[in-house]
Inverse folding.
């Protein structure tokens, strides 16, 4: 068949020496800390990207506002393509907040033209 898997490096040492035992324990602790750091970095990327910034209300309120406006006909589902760029000072069609020049703005053409933040647009996408 195949060769037996190579054992971890720590299996090659005699851990009667306190320094080796401590070294192995610190190594294993560092692996756990490294995994936790990678998880926190991945979660923070969303917070660090201004395009996905939090503003106004919670996601549940936003989702409900989108659903209500879709049902009433004030909004329409976005068919996959939208133009994006720096904000031009237009008011977001869902959250009614001005999209500043430091934010990303999407312009969607359909029965009418609407402008939206990226976090709003994802609720409208088909």
């Amino acid at each position: 068949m195949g060769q037996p898997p190579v054992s971890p490096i720590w299996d090659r040492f005699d851990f009667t020496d306190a320094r080796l035992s401590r070294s192995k324990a610190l190594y294993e602790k560092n692996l756990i800390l490294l995994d936790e750091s990678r998880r926190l970095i991945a979660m923070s990327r969303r917070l660090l990207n201004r395009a996905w910034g939090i503003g106004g209300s919670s996601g549940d309120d936003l989702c409900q506002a989108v659903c209500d406006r879709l049902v009433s006909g004030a909004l329409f589902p976005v068919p996959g393509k939208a133009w994006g760029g720096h904000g031009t000072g237009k008011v977001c069609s869902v959250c009614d907040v001005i999209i500043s020049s430091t934010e990303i703005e999407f312009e969607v053409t359909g029965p009418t033209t609407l402008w939206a933040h990226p976090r709003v647009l994802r609720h409208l996408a088909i």
In short: Confidence is low (pLDDT under 50) at residues 1-6, 53-57. The chain has two domains: 13-48, 53-124.
